[in-house]
Every structure is written in C-alpha cells, then in structure tokens.
Design a protein that fits this description.
This protein is of the alpha/beta class. It is about 55% helix and about 5% strand. Strands 2-3-4-1-5 form a five-stranded parallel β-sheet, sandwiched between helices. Strand 2, helix 4 and strand 3 form a beta-alpha-beta unit. Helix 11 packs across helix 13. It is globular, with a radius of gyration of 23 Å.
C-alpha cells in the first residue's frame, strides 16, 4: 500500500514539482493552487513552506521536506512565525483589504528562523478587487525571501493581473479506489462508516465529488442526512419522469417548504443534484464509459438513460438551472417550482 505519511493524495506530481524547484532554487515567488474544497491545498502549502526552510535542503538523499528536522516540525505543526496564514473571517463572504495590508507591511521584516517567509492566503478566490489590487503591489516586487501561496477553489474571480504573476496549479481529486484506501488506512471512524453503511458511503462519496476533506467533514456532520435526502429526491424525480408518473404538485416532490432562507438553499441544493443526475444520463448517451457524478449504480443509470432523449435530458438540465438561478435572485419559491415542474411534464 502507498505511504501517505506526508498527507498528499493524488497530487504527488505537484509535491515532486515543488520539492525539485526548491532544491534547484527555481521556485517562483508566488503560486496559485486551485481545486475544490478538501483536495489538500493547505497540506501541500505547508509542505512547500517546510521544504523552503528544511534543514536538510542540501542533502540530496533526504526527502524534501524531511518532515523530521526542527524547522519542518515547527512548520508542519503550525508553530512557525515564518509561515503566515491569512484567511477570510468565518462570517464573511469576502476576504477584504485589511489582511492584505497586514501582509504588505509584514513582508519588509526578515524571516525569524529560516531562509524564507511564506504567506499562505486561504480562500484567495474570495478576495475583493480592492484586496487583490493591494496584493498586486506586493506581488510585483516582493523581497527575495518571500513566497506567496494563493489557495482557491477556482480562479475565475482572480484579476488577470494577479494570474499573470503566479503560475496556476490545479489540485486533483483522487480516483475512487485511492480515496477509499486512504480513508480506511487513516480514519478509523470513516472505516467504520464504510463497513456499517456502505450505501450511505456511496452517496457521500458522490456528493463530495471525490474530495477527501469533504468526505471526512460530511461523515461526521448532520449535513450528511440532508445530502442523502437531496440525492434521493433528485433520483426520485428522474425515475418519475422516466415512468411518466411525475406529479404536477411540487409539494409532493419538494415536500414541505416555507419562504425561509435555509429552505431556499435546501431547494437549490436539491436542484443541483437533479442537474448532476441529468448530466450523468446525457454523458451515458454520448460517451462510452463516462465517469459518473451522481449515480452510484451505473446499470440503473444506463437503463434510465434509454428512457430519455438527449433533448429531454437537456431540457431537464436547463430548466433546473433556470429555477436555481431564479431562487438565487430571490424569486418566489412556489412559483419557481411550479414553473419548473410544468416545463418537465
Ligand atoms: Zn526538514
């Protein structure tokens, strides 16, 4: 079995790239690491910071970072003053200018212990334009001992000027077998869950889109129940459409609802699952062996795909997207769902 002691799963190529760049002193002064939540961006960022300051950096025979020297232990244990993490406050939607101003002032101080100071900016995709412009000033001419690692879920909201100054590297999610193997070996609670509730694990795995961190988070949270319900609703709606038994009464499908905000979010999450299901069925009609985003039972999904034309599936997908956008813009829930269902029947 592979050794996961450094916490890197499915991104060994990035790990090797950073190790080699640190060793050959060819690291850029900033990088953008992007990937869905829970793909190991923080773990990798910390290992890059450790590699930069590792005491065995010049020892060709030691792994880099060695993870054993005093510097590595300090950095990996999150106790180093030379590794500064900046993140969005929990109750905020955006990462504002204040933390970036702090960085701008802080870069002028030399590192405390090691050779490098590393600034890890979490949720970098949520930086306001003002924050990004402030960061740009520092990114343009950082002191030679500074490295920036911008961690983000996607890069669309980053300014072109930021993107042009930092190589963009994508974090991958592991293949199914690798993810399961890693979880069983490292998380006894997840292992127990896989053994006791294999069907629920399948649902959680699909809902997590293969993100290890998300799987671990969901298994121990109350969100798990809601996700399984959402998926079951989506699957039921598609089955009813295939059998021509879909009710026009949205109340029968989307159950009780109110105009409360969490209700709106719940229905939007349910619509997202309907879209994932429709995408799977479209993919099955168009490709030979597509990977599934929603269905855990490929045979059933194939059977279902025969019940629909591509045009019908596309209509389901587009109607759901339209309803979801309307809800996002605060449209009336009842009217939106009524319209949505009428467009399907
Ligand atoms: Zn070390």
């Amino acid at each position: 079995m592979k050794n996961y002691s450094n916490g890197i799963i499915a991104n060994d190529d990035l790990y090797d790239y950073f190790s080699a760049s640190v060793r050959s002193d060819t690291l850029s002064h900033a990088y953008i690491l992007h990937g869905v939540r829970g793909t190991g961006k923080r773990t990798l960022a910390r290992l890059v910071a450790a590699a930069l300051n590792c005491e065995k950096k010049d020892d060709e025979n030691a792994p880099l970072p060695c993870c054993e020297c005093a510097s590595c232990r300090k950095i990996i244990g999150n106790n180093s003053a030379d590794v500064i993490t900046v993140k969005r406050e929990e109750d905020r939607v955006f990462l504002g200018i204040e933390p970036i101003r702090f960085i701008r002032d802080d870069v002028s101080y030399q590192p405390n212990d090691g050779d490098f100071k590393v600034y890890i900016i979490e949720d970098a995709h949520t930086m306001t334009a003002q924050a990004q412009n402030a960061l740009l000033l520092t990114l343009e001419e950082p002191p030679p001992y500074v490295v920036f690692l911008l961690l983000c879920e996607h890069t669309e909201s980053l300014l072109e000027t930021i993107k042009s100054r930092a190589p963009i590297l994508r974090m991958r999610t592991p293949q199914r077998d690798e993810a399961t193997e890693y979880l069983i070996a490292n998380y006894p609670s997840v292992k127990a869950f896989i053994n006791n509730s294999p069907d629920e694990f399948e649902q959680i795995y699909m809902a997590s889109k293969g993100s290890i961190g998300r799987i671990i988070e969901l298994i121990s949270s109350s969100e798990k129940k809601q996700i399984i319900e959402n998926r079951s609703l989506a699957s039921g709606l598609i089955e009813a459409l295939a059998n021509n038994t879909l009710s026009r009464d949205f109340g029968e499908i989307f159950s009780s609802f109110s105009q409360k905000r969490d209700e709106r979010e719940r229905i939007m999450a349910q619509l997202l699952e309907i879209e994932a299901a429709a995408r799977d069925l479209i993919a099955l009609k168009k490709a030979d062996a597509p990977s599934m985003l929603f269905y855990t039972d490929r045979t059933r999904a194939e059977e279902l795909s025969y019940s629909f034309s591509v045009a019908k599936l596309t209509r389901i997908l587009q109607s759901s997207e339209k309803a979801r956008l309307a809800l996002l813009r605060n449209a009336n829930i009842k009217l939106t769902l009524t319209d949505f269902l009428s467009s399907l029947i």
